[in-house]
User: Which sequence fits this backbone?
């Protein structure tokens, strides 16, 4: 298990290769990469461009929260390994924000765990985005759709 | 007790962290917000819309009714938007 | 769109980096890597070890079938890009068999399309695995669970 | 008409590909399998369990009832197991 909250950029190719290399006996590896978008809002055509983004973080809690999410995923699915890397600080458009990887014997478990981790991370990990564009800097507002996606995984 | 502020809550309060000793009757997150809001106009502005503020007590997400008595670290922030 | 059926090994890290690099304006990138398992059957502890695997392929139809699957995914979800790389020939344990990547503005679409592509590829792409272990060579049998997973995506 | 065999179907027939001219009355995948099975004991063995054989007509997955008349390429193989 490899969980990191870091200020510096990370290399998606190197992260993916390293994760696969230490899980060669897992039949299924699923990864997700969240990249900084270059426009505001939900629609690429109407949103104003974003020049840079600042990710505010609560570092101590972020480490703990991501470790808790990984433990929850491992309790729910038979996983061989999990990696989560999340940046904070100033980012440029196109740079990766988050990398999540899961390894399992079966692809259904790898996909489900990876999507679960992203959905819960989006509503529980203590990071806040501030986007800077031509009209100034704005804190991104949380989306109801993220709460809805996270709620799908609640146990009944 | 260390009080931490993040994102626009930090910008409105004007500081990232304060070490304070709330009185014994401040027992819940809501009571702590009431007590903090009375400290200055900036604090009052930061805590004016409680519905948009989340709290973590000793680094665990906590409801506004949760206990803060005995906590070492309480953080206030808007709903998270990472990932 | 990048669809390749190839005999040589591919580099997971390089594939992932190249895909992300040409889709920096997509907020969400999902990848799946199917790796050759080193044991037979469903269970790592009971299955006998596998020394090597031969992947038989129907190359002309494989290219066409993967292109059709990618077109179907693009019709169903708003995707910016798709990559599919599938090997054939002789593979060693731990080597990647298949790489699927999707890029979209939203993670739900990227995850769904990537999982759909893998599920349909498993039941439609013309490849056949023959595993060689201590007790000889055996053609892998198709699994009912793969049919069930593929059927989830049938439109009603 | 090019007839292709893959995986254990190829191993049982003993060749990967044959170019044949089935008579006009061979119109469906099933009729083509009947006609091929009569060519040799190896063909008969390969086509003995029809339920485990899939077909592609001109590189498109096709049911056993599908037409083969006019096709350039017909392939026979077990259910696929790639990925």
Assistant:
């Amino acid at each position: 298990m490899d969980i990191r909250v870091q200020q510096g950029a990370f290399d998606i190719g190197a992260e993916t290769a390293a994760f696969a290399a230490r899980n060669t006996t897992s039949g299924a590896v699923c990864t997700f990469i969240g990249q900084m978008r270059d426009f505001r809002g939900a629609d690429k055509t109407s949103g104003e461009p974003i020049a840079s983004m600042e990710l505010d973080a609560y570092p101590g809690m972020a480490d703990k929260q991501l470790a808790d999410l990984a433990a929850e995923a491992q309790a729910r699915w038979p996983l061989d390994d999990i990696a989560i890397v999340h940046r904070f600080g100033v980012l440029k458009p196109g740079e990766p924000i988050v990398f999540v990887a899961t390894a399992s014997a079966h692809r259904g478990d790898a996909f489900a765990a990876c999507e679960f981790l992203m959905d819960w991370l989006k509503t529980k990990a203590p990071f806040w985005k501030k986007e800077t564009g031509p009209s100034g800097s704005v804190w991104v507002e949380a989306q109801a759709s993220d709460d809805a996606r996270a709620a799908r995984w609640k146990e009944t | 007790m260390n009080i931490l502020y993040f994102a626009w809550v930090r910008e409105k309060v004007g500081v990232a962290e304060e070490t304070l000793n709330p009185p014994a009757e401040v027992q819940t997150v809501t009571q702590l917000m009431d007590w903090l809001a009375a400290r200055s106009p900036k604090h009052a502005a930061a805590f004016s819309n409680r519905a948009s503020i989340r709290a973590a007590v000793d680094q665990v997400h906590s409801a506004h009714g949760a206990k803060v008595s005995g906590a070492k670290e309480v953080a206030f922030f808007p709903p998270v938007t990472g990932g």
Summary: Chain D has a mean pLDDT of 98. The longest strand of chain D covers residues 73-77. Strands of chain D lie at 2-5, 17-19, 54-57, 60-62, 73-77. The first helix of chain D runs from residue 7 to 13.
